[in-house]
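// run 5 | inverse folding | seed 20
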């Protein structure tokens, strides 16, 4: 068992590794190779673009969320080389991949502490993947060789297999850089990129623009792929990837390590077309592992139906979260809040994050959909909402000074700000009984939001003390983490829990089985388990 693979890393954030990763993945995919894209760390947007570039779902690999054994299991399972094919598997695992490309984050050795824990380098060691470093060479010549030499010898077990020189000024600059690096080190130069005047992939406040908002996303990817094809030796890059060794020791199927696994039904979509707001082609490549062989009707009788809203407003879903729900026994139905289509009968509802603030006026105008959400919550339906999903369940979203009414399930409004209001890893502890997280359990998650939660104490919307209890207590592990203020998160009303905290299901193994149990209990009319 083996798969060609590389990690594309940078010296720091902004080095150009994302553009290089996207261009390399796109160029290799256009050549006919099946590329498995991966992204280090908690990231929805870069992962979405990588999936679009490859035409296959991306997998997030995060050493903070999972230990080394679980990370290996996740990687090899999602690459389709561990575990038996069955209807619950993602579309990704049914493909025979030719190569995996793993985009790092921040600088190669940047981690959470002095030892560099949770760094891209640590991930490369865990996966036995050679590293190709993207270097910003602006106003630099011979010093580049010193940097490469330092990278080469800084940590044992990290194989620096090549460098790609970015933002070079001209032919003489490129020649000096290449000759110096190859003279003073044994690290090959795999590519030399010119300065790119106009970024074909635009950026926004949370990173790269969502492909659903950028109609020219596919053309932009092709432009980046053209640049990589011209200036990067893709053949040598593949040779580096092919030199990656097979995994050391046995690797378990990820889902065999988690509770509640079983076969599942194919996903369904609501009537009409919830894809109609997805501007980019290839949307189904990420977070949408549906359309599988049906399970016989006799095996479907006890499978609760859980809807998940996946449209241009809410689309931040880790594929593994949806897979975990399927493995726990759910039938998933993809829905939208942006059209007038009716929804089927549901036993549970999952609202992911996204950019509801950019579509706040349109969401607010669709009162039937928002009233439906409120009615489902009032009926006791188990509803789990993260970040953007939480914002939709509040009283209103305030964007650029304009207040847009939302579902008004929780008496709070969310106000958008120019700078992040929450960014980093958290440890969350469940402090109130709820259907999703047993009291006393702790789990890891992350925040990344520009909005701030403002409680309202009456129907007039004036700010006041929180009127709804919080089920979670947060402890920041990195960055600036706020939750909903004072370490509180996870507003809880009836069986609806809404939090700023995003979770990664393999790192929160109780979540999917608990949600499926709650959905099954709701369908049968029994009290929901706490």
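// decoded
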């Amino acid at each position: 068992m083996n798969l060609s693979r590389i990690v594309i890393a940078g010296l720091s954030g902004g080095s150009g590794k994302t553009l290089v990763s996207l261009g390399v993945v796109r160029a290799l995919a256009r050549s006919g190779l099946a590329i498995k894209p991966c992204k280090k760390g908690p990231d929805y947007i870069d992962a979405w673009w990588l999936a679009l570039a490859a035409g296959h779902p991306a997998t997030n690999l995060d050493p903070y969320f999972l230990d080394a054994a679980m990370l290996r299991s996740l990687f090899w399972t999602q690459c389709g080389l561990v575990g038996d094919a069955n209807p619950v598997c993602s579309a990704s695992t049914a493909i025979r991949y030719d190569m995996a490309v793993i985009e790092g984050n921040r600088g190669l050795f940047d981690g959470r502490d002095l030892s560099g824990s949770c760094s891209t380098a640590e991930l490369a060691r865990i996966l036995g993947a050679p590293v190709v470093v993207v270097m910003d060479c602006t106003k630099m010549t011979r010093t580049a060789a010193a940097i490469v030499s330092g990278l080469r010898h800084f940590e044992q077990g990290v194989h620096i297999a090549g460098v790609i020189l970015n933002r070079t000024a001209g032919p003489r600059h490129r020649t000096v850089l290449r000759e110096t690096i190859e003279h003073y080190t044994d690290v090959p130069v795999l590519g030399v990129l010119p300065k790119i005047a106009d970024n074909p992939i635009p950026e926004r406040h949370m990173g790269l623009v969502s492909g659903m908002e950028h109609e020219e996303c596919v053309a932009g990817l092709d432009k980046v792929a053209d640049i990589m094809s011209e200036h990067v030796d893709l053949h040598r890059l593949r040779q580096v990837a092919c030199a990656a060794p097979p995994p050391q020791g046995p690797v378990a199927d990820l889902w065999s390590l988690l509770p509640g696994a079983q076969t599942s039904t194919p996903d369904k979509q609501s009537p009409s077309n919830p894809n109609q707001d997805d501007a980019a082609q290839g949307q189904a490549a990420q977070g949408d592992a549906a359309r599988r062989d049906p399970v016989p009707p006799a095996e479907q009788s006890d499978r609760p139906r859980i809807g998940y809203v996946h449209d241009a407003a809410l689309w931040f879903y880790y594929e593994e979260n949806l897979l975990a729900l399927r493995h726990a026994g759910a039938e998933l139905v993809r829905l939208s809040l942006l059209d007038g289509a009716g929804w089927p009968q549901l036993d549970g509802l999952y609202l992911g994050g996204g950019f509801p603030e950019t579509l706040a006026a349109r969401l607010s105008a669709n009162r039937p959909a928002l009233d439906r959400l409120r009615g489902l919550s009032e009926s006791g339906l188990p509803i789990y909402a993260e970040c953007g999903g939480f914002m939709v369940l509040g009283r209103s979203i305030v964007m650029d000074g304009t207040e847009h009414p939302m579902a008004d399930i929780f008496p709070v409004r969310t106000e958008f700000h120019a700078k992040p209001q929450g960014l980093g890893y958290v440890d969350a502890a469940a402090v109130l009984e709820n259907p999703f997280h047993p009291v006393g359990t702790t789990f890891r998650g992350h925040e990344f939001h520009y909005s701030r939660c403002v409680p309202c104490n009456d129907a007039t919307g004036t700010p006041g003390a929180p009127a709804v209890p919080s089920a979670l207590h947060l402890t920041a592990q990195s960055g600036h983490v706020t939750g909903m203020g004072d370490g509180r998160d996870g507003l809880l009303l009836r069986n609806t829990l809404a939090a700023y905290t995003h979770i990664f299901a393999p790192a929160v193994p109780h979540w999917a089985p608990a949600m499926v149990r709650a959905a099954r209990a709701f369908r049968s009319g029994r009290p929901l388990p706490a």
